[in-house]
Amino acid sequence: MTERLTSLSDLAPTAKLPGYNRNGLKPGILHLGPGAFFRAHFAPFTDAAIAVAGGDWGIEVASLRTADVADHLNEQNGLYTMLVRDTSGTTANIIGPILRAHVAPRNPGDLLARLGDPAIKIVSLTVTEKAYGFDSATGGLDLKHPDIAADLANRHAPRGVIGYIVEGLARRRAKGIAPFTPLSCDNLPSNGAVLKRLVLEFAARIDPELREWIEKNVPFPSTMVDRITPASTDATYRDAERHTGRQDLVAIETEPFTQWVIEDHFANGRPEWEKAGALMVEEVSAYEKMKLRMLNGAHSLLAYLGYIGGYEFIRDVMDDVGLAALARRHMNAAAATLDPVPGIDLEVYADELIARFANKAIAHRTYQIAMDGTQKLPQRLLEPAAEALANGSKAETYAIAVAAWMRYALGVNRDGERYELRDPRAGEIAALLADVPRNGGAVSKALFGLSGLFPAALTGNIGWTEDVANKLEILIQDNKLPLF
Ligand code: CS2
């Protein structure tokens, strides 16, 4: 059996090694959520920044849920392989800055101790939209979110992100230690501002003075993150082994493109990420909106239509000329809702997105992107749709996307096979649809009633809701995907 990746010695010459000496690298960052996206984005940016500019910016990671990735990272001394794929081939990079991995549920005290260590200057997050615990109707704290409810009841032994961050900051304040900077890297608009609001609302409920201290002393920079990263498969692990000569159970694969725009407000220092290509700016919202609406909005549209049309991967959907053209039409519609974005030509940006989606070397499952629709739709599709309608557009591609999500939400494909929705509100959706006849009018009416999801500007627009109902009816009746 092939030896496991545990050190940088004697790897195959095709493996590209970190450009610095890992021995003696000290931790400066604690990262929550060491999933594939973090391993393809934050970690390699930090790896490259350390290679160019040095600094004690090693990363400790903590998983708040499952143990596998954390355990495998520890077994591999934090090392893993990042495969970068395009049609010209694959390169294998060994990524070096991870020093240790924690499994929070196994030992919450250990993670709290790390959050209280003055060496930790940044606590970054890639935990996905649903982990934050915000109420999409108010934008504030969702007191019914299981982690929020549990952590408010038991603040010294948290289990969710907000609980950990607040308790970590409370410990630092009590010990007179400078705060860390919480850094959200999830696909939410104004992710730093969202995180700040949740942290402050949570803190206000347990200790108003702590809330004030956080407000005064802790910056919450927003970021725009981008790199298409499919879930790893056996092919990923096999290829990693082929390129490095070592077995790697946490290898990931990703595309060549990578982008990170970060608001440059840090309490306590930061790596020189700009030396690795990140853009440090005063204000990130224009970039975030562009990416969420043009990339992620089109991605969701293609994922739902593609999945119900029987396409396994986004690249296959892009082979369908009609769907590729629809994606481009949607990107244009999304661009029309945006203010100018500094330094970016939106036409060129859209062309690049089309090429990235079509990358034949990336097998990105439509089912993966379809996950968590109720958490993704608002910022990707519903807010821009409402703005488009207000600007006099028919918002037709948005109606197609929403109809496709509704068709997907029925949970059964055209061959009558059931699939799991994988959405935190799947139970509610199933209950709402239980006795509803399977036609466009009835199903859309039921789903428009999902509390807090659709803004009144959409549900109150009769022309648009009828458009959704008609398109949904076509998707329910037709045995092949219609050309919208
Ligand atoms: C995708 C994103 O799964 C999804 O919802 O739209 O993960 C997308 O691949 C990334 O945001 C690209 O940066």
What is the secondary structure topology, with strand pairs?
Layout (H helix, E strand, L loop, with lengths): L14 E2 L10 E6 L3 H5 L1 H12 L4 E6 L4 H8 L4 E7 L2 E7 L2 E6 L4 H8 L6 E4 L20 H8 L7 H15 L5 E4 L6 H16 L1 H10 L5 E4 L7 H11 L7 E3 L4 E5 L15 E3 L3 H24 L5 H6 L1 H15 L10 H13 L7 H5 L2 H18 L5 H14 L16 H8 L6 H9 L7 H4 L2 H16 L7
This protein binds D-mannonic acid (CS2).
D-mannonic acid (CS2) binds next to helix 10 and helix 14.
Structure description:
The chain is α/β, with parallel strands linked by helices. It folds into two domains: 15-281, Rossmann fold (3-Layer(aba) Sandwich), CATH 3.40.50; 285-477, N-(1-d-carboxylethyl)-l-norvaline Dehydrogenase, domain 2. It contains 20 helices and twelve strands. The protein has helices at 36-40, 42-53, 68-75, 108-115, 146-153, 161-175, 191-206, 208-217, 234-244, 285-308, 314-319, 321-335, 346-358, 366-370, 373-390, 396-409, 426-433, 440-448, 456-459, 462-477, and strands at residues 15-16, 27-32, 58-63, 80-86, 89-95, 98-103, 122-125, 181-184, 223-226, 252-254, 259-263, 279-281. A five-stranded parallel sheet has the order 6-3-2-7-8. Helix 4 crosses helix 6, helix 10 (285-308) runs parallel beside helix 13 and helix 12 runs antiparallel to helix 13 (346-358). It starts with 14 loop residues before the first strand and ends in a 7-residue tail after the last helix. The model has no long low-confidence stretch (mean pLDDT 97). D-mannonic acid binds at residues 187, 226-228, 295-296, 299, 368-369, 376. InterPro entries: 6-PGluconate_DH-like_C_sf, 6PGD_dom2, Mannitol_DH, Mannitol_DH/Oxidoreductase, Mannitol_DH_C, Mannitol_DH_CS, Mannitol_DH_N, NAD(P)-bd_dom_sf. Keywords: NAD, Oxidoreductase.
